[in-house]
Every structure is written in structure tokens, then in C-alpha cells.
User: Fold these one by one.
Assistant:
Number 1:
Amino acid sequence: MSEAIDAAAAATSQDPRVGLRAVAVLRQLVERLEALQVDSARRYGWSWEEIGQALGVSKQAVHKKHGRR
Amino acid sequence: MFERFTQTARQVVVRAQEEARALGHPWLGTEHLLLGILAQPEAPGVSTLTELGVNLDSARAALGQLVGRRGLGESDADALRTLGIDLDEVRRRVDASFGPGALDYPVRSRARRWLPWRRGQCVATRDVIGYLPFMPRAKRALERAGREAVARGDGHIGVEHVLLGLLDPKGNLAVELLRHLGPDAEVVRTRVLADLGKAA
């Protein structure tokens, strides 16, 4: 419980340096996870359309981002 | 390829494999060969590196920093911890699903699959137990080691030749690593050759 409060306190940190850095790294982590999952989905034979749908973006968007990787 | 290698030089390659595995790297690169060399401090040429302030520990730490710039490092883990996210746990789960190193060394698959010399290609062998594939520059370094031996009129390929082979003017991660620790490849080469000359 106290841990959850700590985390919540940090996430809403008043110090922009702490908060912004955390957001930046989180974005990096999300990008990596997305790349792994998209690659994996392609190997499973998913279409760009299906991947886009699952990610909540258009198939053009997902293809533009991951198609040439 | 390894017929003319001395016992110690073979040991360098074996050790390089172990270092790569320990780092979760699915390939064998010049950076691992350098660590393999430094694990043989008694071998000819290696004492020169030690004198220049390069040893196994400092090189490992430097590699961690260099590679850390590509992967998510310690300070990134700290930042995520402020959000209650345990990066080690995330890494553990991702590696369990996608193979060791998946999170830090993203796969560049599909589009580049037909380019066999791209690092991403190695990922296909991530799960294969046995020898890790040599990266092109590591292979080149070993070929250069052979040429160094011939140039010096040595009948064998020893650790000193592998070291000289690693000091590729075209550059590689081992050279980058050395520069990070201080000495320039050209300086190391001159010093190693001078020390070998003295020993001979």
C-alpha cells in the first residue's frame, strides 16, 4: 500500500525534471514493446489492418511506422 | 579458420563467446573479442593494454555504458521506478517471450532479412545453443589477425595478432571501446608492436 502511494506520488511529481524524464523513458519502453509485438504479429501472419485495429490506429499509420523496419 | 591459432588465442574466442552470452548478446562482436583478450592478461601484447589503463573490468564497464546508450540503462530504470515500473521485471518477461536481449536489442527483421551481414539477422539464431555467429567486423578482425601473423613472419596466430587484428583502421566497436577508455587504436598498435619488438 505504501509502495503504491510512493509510486503515485512520484508519477505526479511536482518536479518537472523527474516527471518528464519518467514520461520520456516510458515512451521509449512503449516504442520497443510495440516494435516487438508488431514484428511478432507479422510473423504470426497478421495483416497490417488487423495490427492497426488492435493498436487503435489506421493500417496506414502502422505500416508507415513499422513496414520498412 | 582456427587451425593456426595458439591454445591461448582459441581461449580468447571461447571467452569472447562467454562474455557475449553473459551480456545476453546473440552475436559475437569485436567488443566481445576484446573482452576475451583482456581475460588473458599474461598473453603477449595484453600487458600493453593493461599499462594503457585498459583491463577486463574497465572494458566491461565501458561496454555497459556504450551499449547502455542503445538499450535502456540504469538511469532509465530509475526513472521508470518513479512510476512504479520495474524495468528488470519487464525485461525478464519480454526476454521470456521473445528471447534474451529482445528488449534491449530490438530485432530488425523482415525488411533486412535478405541482407545477411546486418546485425538483426543474428536474432534468428538467438535460441540456438552452441556457437554464436561472428559479426562481420569480428570475422574481419580474425582475418586481419592472420595477416598480421604473416606480416610478422609468425607461423602461429596468437593473442597479440588477434589484438592487432582488432585495431582495425576502418573502425569497430572494440576500437570505439578503447577510445572510450582513453587510448586511440593507432596508439595501441604502435605500443603493442614496440613491446612485442622488445620481448622478441
Number 2:
Amino acid sequence: MTTRFATIPSLWALALGAALAQQTPPTAPEEDEEKPTPSYPKIDVGYGSWGLSGNFRTFGRYGAPPRGFFVRELSYGQFGLSPALFGEFTFRGQPFDDHVFETKAIWGPDASTLEGSIENSVFYQPSAHPIDESKRRTMAASYRRPLGKETNLTVDYSHNQLDTNVEGPGYGKHQRTNRFSGSVAGPLGSGRYDLSLADRRFYDRANFQPDTRTQTWRGEVLQPIGKLNLTGLYAHTNIEQNGRRDSEAKNWAIDGDLPIGYDLDLQFGFRTEKYDLPETINAYVRERHVSYARLNGYFSGLSTQLGWRHTETERVRLDQRFVDVPKIDLYEGRITGRIRGGSRWSLKGSIEDHNSNAVMLTSDPRRLYWDDKVTVQAKIDHGGETWGAYGAVNFRYMENSPREIKVRTRQYVFGANCWAVPGVDFFGELMIDNADTRFHEQDATVDLDSFFPSSRVWTMGANWAINENTMLTTSFTDLVTDNDNPIFEPGGNVANRFWTAHLRHRDRLGREFGLMIAPGKYTDKVIRQLGYEARVVMVTAQWKF
Amino acid sequence: MRIETVLLALGIASIVAGSAFVSQDELQKTSAQKLFAKATDDDYIGSSACTECHEDKVNNFVHSAHYAFSQKDGLALEKSGCEGCHGPGKFHIREDDPEVIAFKKMTPKESSAACLRCHQSTMKVSDWHRTDHGRGDLSCVSCHQIHPDSLNEFNEKSTPPMSIRSDKHLIAKASSKLLKADETVLCSSCHRGEAAQFRLSSHHPVPEGKLICSDCHQSHPTKKATNRREALKSKSVTCHTEYAGPFAYEHDPVAGHTGDGCAECHRPHGSQNPDLLKGFSRGMCAQCHTDKATLHYPGRTCWTSGCHVSLHGSNSSRLFLQP
């Protein structure tokens, strides 16, 4: 297997070696750190009411708007607390609900930086039955210090605490993740190096998953050789799990780019990943080798790209007695251009061809994976003085020939805005999603199409600068899902309509007052108890000193 | 030693040898490099001279994150004040053949190279060219604003465009002050399709302000040590750590055999199906496991039924059943 994998990079390297005949580029000037500007003390507070009837768990599934008194922003930044010191902090939210606290200090002639943040999020699983709230709490700290003109030391730490409560038969998560990472990066000859260590510790308090420690050492070197820029990377990961043998992952990569003339460049690379997972006892990928090449050209205002990527994997079979070597070839292209008058357009696509597929040892031995994938994306965008418009079409096709299944998905997005009236910007957008499938299972009693719903969402509104101190932003959004839903599952047939109006007034002293009214209705046509109706009202006041 | 190994060694040797005997052809310098290279100390006239014609720009620059740096004592002339970015003032004001580094008028390649004169320790020119944005012919100033054109957001021309962010969810992470606009607004001005997906009923909590685009996407290399690729599976396990594994029983699509990782089954920005899935209910599984599409416990969803609840990988069941 190794021989086959080695052929591709060998040929690449030979070809490139012959192509090289340029001088080393000039050494770049050194970089210095930037300092932020002083921010003024700012107090922004508000009062909010939900006016909610119906299911508050659906309403707060990703995070609810603040209710009662809340701090929209309390911030203060100060230069010169001592020589060459800058410090700032910001708080947003409510103490026992969603909030964000961020702080930053920069000091010394080398502008060392220490940042910290605490975030608290409260959310719910949509459910017709009472379920307690779920919480995610993240604490992070970061320290950066220059160790010379171009060398930097960075140390990051984060603690992530997730406690979810869900409806049965699922189970809630109670897990903690600590992550520490440190890196040193600096110049090396006319290139640079980057060395890092990342240590992640995962603890599952519910004991469904073993506690896991993942430690990754990583080294990366970028070196210009003539015109050719080569990057080499090696990473070694050790994974320890309680009561199990250690697992290991090794990554090697060589990436390069070679300018061929001023408007054309070649990018290429070769990557190898090796996994040693002694505790895994079913099918898994043991090795992966990826080679790619891409030509980028810029001609007559057009940006064009042509690329190819070849992937070979060593996949251990389900019974772990044999290894297969599935191969995937990906061909991709992109062209982007501009049209006179402020328009730009792009067309890109890819074809993925799967060969030598893995042997299936499942009860049905037909292959489980797609053997062809095609994607196409077209976009056009116009931005003028009085109007703008855009359109995007995404198409994706996937086929599994042994199982005679084809899936096509399409997405259309169209939008426009215009300044037809002075001071008023009208905007609107429509997105349509749909899919169709071809499915020829002999005993099929249900068409797979029933499980690929379509949806339509449109939004329209306006930004109205009433005068130089007052602005009104308003929008209405309507979402409808068209789903056969033959097994009457929740979350599949929904309608969501909401309107938002936000009026802001800023006086001559810079104080700002806001009023927001946001009525909305969410309907689940299958499980009515999941719906809600809300009439959110908020008032805010802001002072800058 | 295998012949391919020899070939690989020869290839690497030929690269090194090829570059050792490089020709003396001049590497094409960018226009910014050429301009600074030919300047003498006398060609720098100081930022105060710029005020005469560009008063608004100079005044607004005070509010830029670059301002404090550009005023630093002892800074080289070619990095100080307005001329640190736009080039020596004397070249600009001369009547015959005036020269200035005007970022909006340069090609993206030239413009990026001008910024990277100073930002080399974050990324080299070739690092930038390898990013999707670099390949998409964008430049630094496509997203970053060095000095705001207008500080009055109530101004007609600076009215905010339609945003992914919901106005109702005011408690949100702030984005970098160096960007032209709030990060979600800025990204959505080009990535329209992705932005629109956040309006669907199942989405990552970007409209609610819990995430911003750069929490998942790295638009270019930064100094942060946290933005490293995960060794196993895709980057999504940074937040969804419980799916990182390795598991005793791996599920091929999750383990990355098919190449798309999490995106094999999920639409990360938003979907009309619960749990960000590409297909609805058991149809999601049936597109691969066609033999189980209809007769295997029909009328139930594979995971909400309480059977295959460990689809991302299991340590106790080959069929990913309840642990």
C-alpha cells in the first residue's frame, strides 16, 4: 500500500524540483503589535417583556431574549493605568441567565496581552412535557507575549461545562472539557516555524463515555525555496481513555505553492494520516492519504481555479480481518468575475468519483456509500448606488448505484434592496429549499421523497433614517416547511412568522434610547403543544461618558 | 528500499538542488514594496500634511485600532502615520506622475501584499494565498476597515443591511473592532445562501448571538493557538466533544470515511429538519441503509424511538443502541 501512496508525491516532487530556478524573495520587514483604541465608559441597560403564551421551551431552544432588567452593555476601557498599560472590561446580560463577561489587558513595551471571558447560556430542548433548563458555561483565558521582533508565545486555556436535560428516551449530557494549548511561532530563515501543544481533557459526569485525554504535539515549518513556498507539518496525537489502551494519530503534510508567472500559480500538497485505535473493534479508517493540485489563474478580470484531489484510505473491515483501499477522485473548478457597473458573479462545481469501494460485511452486502457526488453553485451579486440584488443557486447530486438511490437537493436564494426614497433602504430575500430522490428498493412501501421536505423562507423590511438622530429598522420573516411527515414526528411541519420593529434615537450628547417590538408566532402542525406566541417588547437606554 | 521511496527522496533532493542553483531573475516585487524601496527619509512629510486635503480621513483614523500603533515612538518612518500604509507623501504630492498606495484601487493581490509588509508574523503571503478567501481574489480591505469612513451609523449610506443576528437577542459576543461591520453582517454580505439558512427553524445559534462565524471558520491564519485542526474527526468536536471518540464501535460517516465528516448528515448553518439534519427522521438513515427503509420497525425514527441513540459512535453496541 505504501508504494502506491508514495508514487504521487514522488512524481510531484520530481516535477517541481525540475521547475525550480528562482531566487529567494527578499526578507520581509518585522511586525509590531497593535494596540486598541481607548473606549469610553458605556452603560447600556434595558427592560424586556416576553408576552409569551404557549411553549416557552420552544421559544428558548437556542437562547431566550432577556426578560426584566438587563445590562445590554457595561464597558470601560482605560489607557495608562500604569506606564504602557491598557485595560478594558465588558459585561452583557443578566447574572443568572445568559451573560457574557470579557476583559482584556495589554501592557509593557512589547504589548503582552491577557484576555479572559466567561459566557453563560441557558437553553431548552423543545418538548411538550416539562423539562428542566440546559446550560453551557464557558470560561476562557488567553495570554500572548512577543518573545522577540517576530516571535510570539501564545497560551490559551478554556473550560467548557455542558449540562443538558432532554426528553426520554434520550439522555442528558453532563460533561466538562478543559483545553490547554500553547504555541511558539517565529521566523526561521526566510520562512517561519510554529510549534504547539494542545491538551484536551474530557470528563463525562453521566458516565456514558470514558474520561478522555487527548494530547497533540504539532510542528509546522514554512520555507520559501526560490519561488516555491513549502510548508511541512507533523502532528502526533496521543489519546488516553480510562481503563483502555492508548490510541494514537499521526499526521504528516507537505503543502506548496509555486507562482508560474504573475497571474498564475500552482498549489499542491500531500497529506498522510495514520490511526492506531486498538480499542475500536469494528470497521474504521486506519490510514488516509490525500494528494491535491490546484491551478489558480487571474486573467482579464477573471479569477479561475482548476483542481484535483485524490484520496486513498486503508479501511479495516467490520471483522477486522482484511483491509480495503477505497479511492476518491475529486475534480473541482471555479470562475469568478466582475461585470461593469458593480456586479460580480461566480460559478463553481465539483465532481467526486468513488472507486475500489470497501467491501461490506453487513447483512445487506451492497455498498453503503455514495459512488458519485456532484455539486454546482452559481452566484451573482449587484451593488449599485440606488439598488442592489443577489441570487445564488446551489445544486447537489448524490448517487449510490448498487442500491439504486439518487438524491438531488437544490437551494435558491434571491434578494434585493433599494434606496427608492431618500433615507429609506427597503430589502427583501427569498430562499427555497427542495429535494427529490429516486429510490428503487423492492419492498419499499414508503417513498424516500417523503423524508426530504422542502421549505420556503422570505423576509422583507426597511431601514429608515428618519433624521440624523433617529432610525427605525423593521422586518417581517415567514418560514413554512412542506413535509409529508408520514410518521408524525415533531419539528418537521412548522411555520414561523415574526415581525421586528426597532426604533432608536440618539441625542446630541450621544445618549441613545431604543424601543423594540417583536411579535411572533411559531406553529408545529403535528404537535400543537410545541407552538408559542410571543409579543416581545424592550426599552433600552445607553450612555457614553 | 522500495522504488517509490527512492523516487520520493530524489524528488525532495531535486527541490533542494533546484533552489540551490536558482537563477538571478528578479522576483517580481509588489507596487508597495517598490514604492517604499525607492524612498529616502526626506520623502516622508508626516501625517499633519495629509490633513490639508484628507481631513475627514485623518480625523477618523484616531478611532482606528491601527492609530495607537502608528503613533508609537521610535517607529520607522515607513511604518508611521498615514505614510506607513499609503507610502511617502512626497511621491503623492508631486505634480508629475504622483504615486500613492491606494488600497481600493489596487488589485487584491497587490493590496494584500501591502498589508502583509507588517503582518508577516501572523501569516506570509503564501499563507494568505492558500486560504479560500485568498484564492477567491479577495484582499484584506475586503473585510477590514483601517479608518472608518463614517462614524455615524444613523447616516443614510451606512444603514445596516439585513443581518443574520436577531434584534431580540441583545446579549451577544462582540466581533473584532477591525472589521468593516459586525462579523455576521460582513460574512453574510457575500455568503448569502449560508446566511439565509440561519433563518430556518433548526440552526446553530448565530441569530441568538451565541456564536459568530469565526467560532467555526478560520478566514485566515491568526496568532491564536486554539485554531488547530483536531486529530480525529472534524473540527466540530471542539464544542461537541462527546462525539470525538475514539469509540469501540465507530460509525463510518462520523469517523470521516466518506470525507465530509459531520456534514455527511448535517447542514451546519441551518436546516428545515430537526437537529440540523439533511433529511427528515428515518429518511436520513434510509438513504444509505435502504434495506432498513421500510420493513425495519416502520413508523419510528431510528434514534428518537430509543433504539439507535448512539449513532455518533458507541462503546457498548455494534448497532449503536442505548448505552
